[in-house]
Fold these 2 entries.
Entry 1:
Amino acid sequence: MSLEFSAEVPTPEGLSNLSPSDRAARLSDIARAVRRSVVRMIDSARAGHIGGDLSVTDILTTLYFGVLKLDPAEPLAPGRDRFILSKGHCAAALYSALALRGFIDPALLPTFMKPLSVLNGHPNRRKVAGVEANTGPLGHGLPIAVGSAIASCLSGRNWQTFVVTGDGELQEGSNWEAAMSAGHRGLDNLCVIVDRNRLQQGARTEDTNRLDPLTDKWAAFGWEAVEVDGHDHAALYELFTRPRSGKPLAIVANTLKGKGVSFIEDRVEWHHKVPSAEQVALALEELR
Amino acid sequence: MNAPVAAPPATFDCRQAFAETLIELARADERIVAVCNDSVGSSNLGGFQKAFPDRLVNVGIAEQNMVGVAAGLSNGGFVPFVCCASPFLTGRALEQVKADIAYNGYHVVLCGMSPGMAYGELGPTHHSIEDLSWLRAITDLSIVVPADPAQTSAAVRWSVEYGKPSFLRVGRTKVPSVSEGQAEPFVFGKANRLREGRDLTIVVTGILVSRALEAAEALAAQGISARVVNIATIAPLDEAEIIAAARETGAIVTVEEAVVSGGLGAAVAEVVVRHHPVAMRLLGVPGFAPTGDTAFLLDHFGLNRDGIVRAALELRG
C-alpha cells in the first residue's frame, strides 16, 4: 500500500537490544506510520473512529512492536501473549498495527469497511489473523482478558495478557465485575491499559458520568494502579515490561483523542467524523 | 377389592447425570473446566470442585464476567462448562452469549441450570421461560434440551467433542426415563421418535416428554393414534422429522416449558409453513406465572396429559 509497509519493521526481540532512547525513536516512527495508515483507511472507507484510533496508537505500537511475544507465522501458537482491544471501534489502528507486524496483508487495508471485506468496522477473529476477540459492544474485553489470564496460569504456559479499554467504556458495569475478580485472584499476568482521552462519543467523560478518581478505583479493586503519559513510548515500554508480583496492573494512560493531527486533537466532534479530502491531505502532512 | 395400584415410575434429577458425566470426562480431559457464579451447590458442582479444585472458576455473582471469562478460557485452550441458573445466564449475560461466545465461535458449553419453571415458587424473576426464544435468535449457537438423565449424559459427552458454541438446558425437575428402547438416547440434530402414530404428532422437549407419552396413551384409549417426537436439539432442528410428521399425520401439537413466541413451537411452525402446512396447536407458558410449585404451575398451564389430550382433540375436531 505504501512504502512504510515494505520497510523492515522491528520486532520486540529486535527492539529489546536497543537503548531506551533508540527504542523510543523507532516506536515513534512506527506510530507515525500507523497514524498515516489510520487516516488513509478512514479516508478510503469514508467511515471510522478517527479520534480514538489516534489516541490509542502509541499504546498499540509499544505493545505490538516492543512487548507482545507473537509470531505472524503461527498466530494461534498456544503460548503466545494475548492482546485484546476492548474498544473494538478503533479497529483501523489495530488492523494497521497488525499489517505492519505481518499478520494482515497491507493490500487489504484499503478494503476497510467495504462490502464483504474481512476488515469489518469491529475486529473479527474468525476472519483476521492476530485478532484474539471479537469486540465492539463495550465492556467485553476485560472479562475475556481475565479468562485468558486464568487460562495462562491453569495451563502453565505463562503468557501475558494485555487489554486496552476506552475510558468512557468503563461506565459499563461488566468491567468492574471483571476488575473485582482479577483483583481477587491476584492475576499479575494481566495488564489493562485505559486509553484515558477524557472524551466519549457525545461529551467529556467527566461531564457525562464521572470516572475520576480513576486510578484510585482500580487500586480499590485490588490492582496496582499507575498513571502514565499514553503517548510516551519509553514510559509505556517500561511499565509493560516491569516485573510484577501478586496484583494485576492497571495503567491509566493519559492521551489526547485525535493525537497527532492538530485540528482533530481533543475535539468531541471527531469521535467518528470523517475528514474531507483537504483535511486528509493536511493530516498526512502533519503525520509525515 | 381394590385394584392393585402401579408404583409410579422412578424419577431423576438430570443435574446428577450432568455432574457425574462432567467429572468422568474431566478426569480424562484436562481441557475441561467449570465456570460458575456462586452456584456450586445449585449447579451440583460440589463433586467437581472436590475432584478438581483448580479447575472450578467461581467468579461470584457476576454473570457478564462469567461468560466473558469462559470466552477467555476457551481462547486459552480450555473447554469451559458455564454452569449458572438459566434465567441469569441467558438473561443477564445475553449480549455476552451472543458476542463473546457465539460470534467469536468459542467452544464453550453454556449450561442453563434449573430452567423453565424449576424454581416454581420463587416466581417469574427466577423462571427461565424465555431462554429458548432468546437463544434461537442467535446464530452459530446450538441449543440442546435433554429430556432425561440418559440424554443429559450423552449430550454432555457430545458437547465436549462438538468444538463449537452450545447451550445445554439442564433440568432440575425430576423426570422419569424416556430413553428406554432407544438405540442411542441422544444424537445431535436428530429427533427421537418415541411412539409411532398416524392421526397427529406431539412434538415435545425436555421435562415434558413423559407427559406427552402419557397423553398419547390416553388418546390411544379414545382411538386416536398419536406419534410422539422428542426434540432434544432445538437448534439446528431436525427438519426432516418435522416434515414427516406433517405429511404423515396431518396435525401437530407442540409442547414446551417455555413461552411459545420463538421457542420450539415457533421453530416447528416455521418448518411446517414452508414445507407442508397443517393445523397446529402450540402449548407452552402463556406469561408470567402466579405463585406455585413447579408441578402446580405445569398443571395450571395445561402442560400435562389432560392439557395435551385437550389440544389434540381440538385439532382432530
Entry 2:
Amino acid sequence: MNERVTRDLIVMVEDQNHKPVTGAAVSFFLPNEGPGGTFTNGTNSLTTTTNEQGRAAARGIQFNNQAGPMPVRVSASYAGRTASIVINQSNVLAGTSSVGRGIGGGAGGGMSKTTKILIIGAIAGAGAAAGLVLGGRGGSSTPAAAPLPTVTLTPGVVTVGGPQ
Amino acid sequence: MKRSYILTSVFSLLGSLNAFAQVGAPVMGYVPEGGLIRIMQGIPAAGIVSNAFDVGRELSLLEVAPNQSVAVAIAAGSGEALVVILDAHGSTVRITAIAGAAAGASRIVFSPSGTAAALWNGATGHLQVVTGLTSTPSVRDIDASFAGGDPGSLAVSDDGSWAIASWGQQVYAFGPDSSVKVLPVSGAVQALCFFHSSANVAVVMAGQVMTISDIGGGAVPKVIWTDPGDAAASANQLAVGVGASFDNSRLTVVANTGLLFTFDMATGEGRGADCNCAPAGLAGLGGATFRLMGTNAGALRVFDAATNEIWMVPLAVAADGGQQ
C-alpha cells in the first residue's frame, strides 16, 4: 500500500533566526476526548526536550479506536518563552490485512481486528511554518525531505536591577 | 557576624523542661529527626528542643510544613505517603494516608507557607503535588521523567498550581494544565524557591541571585545580585537553600559554608551573617525565621531574617544526662 503511516509526532523548535533550539521543553497534548490516544506514559500528554537538531519526538502513541480529526496541541518553551501550534491530524482505522503488524497491532482486547493508522494532515500553526510530521517508524513511504512543523521561540529580555 | 546567646534563659529552660511543658509554653515549631518529630518550645532567643513524640507509625522520611501545622511523611516499609496533623502542643496527632499519592517518594518539599507539598519519586521520575493537606488531600501527578534523574532543587507554589525543579542549568516549571516551561536562567542552579502566595520565584546560581516574576505568564527574569568578586574564590561555596519571609519582604540565601545573606526586597540591600555551622538547607518557621537544616547536633540554629540574628536552640537533656 502507499499510505504514510506513523505513530510518532516530531516537531522542530527554532529561534527567531531559524536556528534549532537545543534543550527546549516540548509538550504534546492529545485530545481529552474523541479520536486520540495515549503516550507511553499512559496519559494524553507527554513532555520531552529537543535534541541538538532542535527536534523533539513523541513516540509510541497508542491510538484509540475512534476515527476522525485529531488536533494535537504542541507547546514549546525555552528560556522563559513559550510558543505553541496545533497539528491537525486524523485517526483512521484500517484492517490489519492491508496495513500489517507493527503499525498499530498489539493493542489487545477489542483492538485485535483493527489497526490504527495516523494519516498525516495539514498543519494549522499559530505563526508556525507549514510542514508535515514525518513518519518515523513503520512508515514505508514517508518522504524523507518533508519539513517538520516548526515552533518559533522569540528570546525575551533579562533585566538587571534591585529587587522588586 | 552577629551571634546572640541568651544562655541564662536557655539554662533556665533546661532545668525546668517538665514544668515548662505543663504550663503550655509556646511552640516555636517542629523538627523532623529521622522518622521522629521533636518540638521546639519557647522563642528563638530562648528556645529548647524537647523530646520526640510518637506519631504511631514508623517513618522513613518526614518534613514539617513552614506553618508548623502539618507534616508529610513516608511510611517505612510500605512507602505510603502520609499526612500528619500536628497538635499545637505536640501531645496528639492525626495521621492519614494521602489517597492517590504513589508509594516510595524519595523527597518531600513544602510550599513557602506549607499549604501544598511536592513529593518526588526518584524511581519513576514523577512529581506529585499535594494540596488540601489539612482537609482532603488532592494529588496532581507530573511526569518529569524526560528530565532524567533526580532534580537538584525542587519547589512548589502555595496554591499548588506550579512546581519548579532544576536539573543542572535547566529549570522546568510544571503548570496546572500539564504545561511545562523552561525558565530563563543562565547558569547551574544551586537553590530555588517560590515566594509566598505567588507564582514568583527566586533562583540562586553560582555568583548570582535572580527572581523570575509570574512564571505562568511573562516569566520576567531580574538579576538582584551578582558576585562582584573572583568566582574562583567561592568555588567551594554552594547555596543549599533559599527562602522568603512570610511577607515576602526578605529573601535569605544560605550556603554550605554557613554564610547567610538576606536581601531586603524593597530596598535591594543585603546583609550577611555566619552561623559557624554547615547547614543543609532552610526550613521556614513562620514570620521571618528559618531553621537551619542539618544542624541538630547538640543545638540547632534558628535564623531571624528580620534582625539578622542566629540563635542556638539546644536539645533537651535527658534524665541520665544525655540528649534526648
